[in-house]
Specification:
Number of strands: 0
Mean pLDDT: 90
Number of helices: 8
Low-confidence stretches: none
Strand content: under 5%
Order of helices and strands: HHHHHHHH
Distance between the termini: 46 Å
């Protein structure tokens, strides 16, 4: 079984480079030869791993939505009904990790979601709705007086804040990962506190 410390598979390498290139130049601005060159194989060699660029895009966008939901569910399960404040902090930390470590996927989602086949786009939206509802439930445990529509709006607003990281400048221009993560965490908790006031 693969672990986080294992070297990435060729498939994972391809997806990472495809996400970077698609985010930089747009889906239609990148050819399979360029993606292949980025991972040291021929463009046609990519077809051993993917049916084409459309399949890469679908796996990237469906995949990250699924990973966020799975990670959120894992954090809820690990809390085992414990402190809702700590669980909210854990969810925020997990989303910040995504926002800082997978910035190309945020850009890709914003620009290219409409290029997915209808079935893939619907699956992305379904996974995202489940992820939002998981957060809404936790947020309402922390702020019991917060009505469901307001909680949902607050969650979407905080996602907008956290997912703005591709617009913060080049990675080297940020104050450092730990400082940026801490700032985003304080801002997210401040936004939720304002919603729950």
């Amino acid at each position: 079984m693969a672990t986080r410390t294992d070297a990435p598979t060729r498939r994972e390498q391809i997806l990472k480079e495809a996400a970077r290139l698609f985010a930089e130049r747009g889906f239609h601005g990148v050819g399979v030869d360029e993606i292949g060159a980025a991972v040291g194989i021929s463009g046609p060699g990519l077809y051993r791993h993917f049916a084409g660029k459309d399949a890469m895009l679908a796996e990237l966008l469906v995949g990250i939505s699924g990973q966020l939901l799975t990670g959120g569910k894992r954090r809820v399960a690990e809390s085992d009904g414990g402190d809702p404040e700590a669980l909210l902090d854990s969810l925020i930390e997990g989303h910040i990790d995504f926002a800082l470590d997978d910035r190309p996927l945020i850009t890709l989602h914003d620009r290219e979601l409409d290029r997915l086949r209808d079935s893939d786009r619907k699956l992305v939206r379904q996974l995202q709705r489940q992820y939002v509802e998981l957060w809404v439930e936790v947020l309402r445990d922390v702020y019991p007086g917060l009505l469901e529509p307001a909680a949902r709006s607050a969650v979407h607003s905080v996602f907008g804040l956290l997912n703005s990281t591709p617009h913060l400048g080049r990675p080297g221009s940020l104050p450092g990962r730990a400082a940026t993560a801490a700032l985003l965490h304080r801002m997210a908790r401040g936004a939720f506190a304002a919603a729950g006031a």
